User: What shape does this take?
Amino acid sequence: MMANPLYDRLFGRHAGNAATFLHLPGNQSLSHDAFLRLAARYAHAFRAAGLGPGDRLAMQVEKSPAALAVYAAAVQAGIVFLPLNTAYTAQELRYFVTDSGAKLLLCDPARAEALRPVAEDAGAAMLTLGADGQGTLPEAASAQPESFGTTPRDADDLAAFLYTSGTTGRSKGAMLTQANLLSNAEVLVDYWRFTGDDVLLHALPIFHTHGLFVATNVMLLAGGSMIFLPKFDTDQVIAQLPRATAMMGVPTFYTRLLDDPRFTRDLVSHMRLFISGSAPLLADTHAAFEARTGHRILERYGMTETNMNTSNPYEGERRAGTVGFPLPGVELRITDPETGEARPQGEVGMIEVRGPNVFKGYWNMPEKTAQELRETGFFITGDLGVIDARGYVSIVGRAKDLIISGGYNIYPKEIEMLLDAQPGVLESAVVGVPHPDFGEAVLGFLVPEKGATPDLETIAAAVGAALARFKHPRKLIVLDELPRNTMGKVQKNVLRAEYAGLFTGG
Ligand code: MCA
Ligand code: AMP
Assistant: This one.
């Protein structure tokens, strides 16, 4: 019987291990053991700050080894980890901290002043942690012991909350259990053949499933190491690739590398594996990558609520434009979006998944949970897909109104609600159009109230104050009216088609 399965399997097993866990810029490195000792001190500091098992810890800090140690500390102390995008504004944070009932907000020292009212109003304590490892958390932890008695947890206990926006414009806290995370990591290590010899180039943010659970949990379980970069920077990635055996990224990583003449076959001839996910990888990118490097990118498909669902095979054919097969233990079916009836192989429909990877539900939202998570355990993904005769799954569309830009999900509804509320605006529509770097880019359409002339600069400023930069419409366009079908529904496909070439020159 293990006391805390997630901690024991991912972290505890490395206690006393002097091997390198993180390779850091400037030829620095951090061993597994040093990492765990830091995490133990943080765990003590969190207890001292009043956090008990099951309490939520919200964190908005720059990526760093210390930030990753906060995750380890939370798992060890049974605290529910709630990482937040560093791009979120104070207004966005207010919702997450309040909705989750977080007991602690850990933020960058530079944002402490702006975020103090958020923490105070929510009744949360506040600590700081900078990218340089400085702040009130390190201060509070400095005198703490380097070992912490791991808090017992059940596999079904919550390990993390990740917020995912919704089609109603309100974000939902996806509750992920220890078993959700551990089962998926186990399957992925095996499916992708990760071992202790692997060195993963890690340039993803650590506040989402991809960089935190897929990349980090897999490497912890496999016992390998990571080249831990603060963010994706083409120069740094090209400089570090010779030391890596594998890389995970969103499609933008791969298109940016292909745009650089230094990214050659020689540079990556030693690499074992390139994995892509979080957004569709164009078949053209897949082909261009193979032509340049000889490697076939392995594409997989997942969600915040489910971790990874499908993957192209390691040894079999990696088919461009598909997301491969359901992972071992994951059931995937295609259903009629209206009736929920299963559809035969070859027909397009709603992708539904069931397995140990599927989350427990949305925090404090039983109705939303019931709408998306069937009593049978199948989760309705909102993605439309089809399974071909060989069993490969392809995602062919989305039943949910969602834009994916550079791997970040953006829900038009959230932006439309804000635009609609601006002076002189009667109504609005937000759509995604093709973008050469981000895959999709956000466009906002405004219809003025009768006789009004909305001031676009003022509106852009209001959007800027409220929403993270990556959600901002790249352009606001004024229209006399929105295209509608005979039922009166806004035809976003018409807007998308009309402006499809805006960023691609098509
Ligand atoms: C930055 N900007 C963006 C984005 N990122 N705008 C739209 N979409 C974005 N994704 C803004 C910046 O604020 C900046 O604004 C301008 O665009 C250009 O910034 P740039 O320096 O080019 O950006 P960057 O810092 O290089 O970031 C681009 C990036 C990054 C490397 C693609 O967004 C990234 O790391 N994305 C990965 C996201 C991810 O991990 N997704 C996984 C979600 P200004 O105009 O002010 O200069 S997990 C998931 O989806 C599921 C579960 C799954 O299957 O994995
Ligand atoms: P998230 O909010 O980060 O959980 O985003 C999950 C969504 O990203 C999925 O529902 C898909 O729409 C999309 N997604 C993830 N991986 C892929 C992929 N390989 N191809 C296409 N879409 C993907």
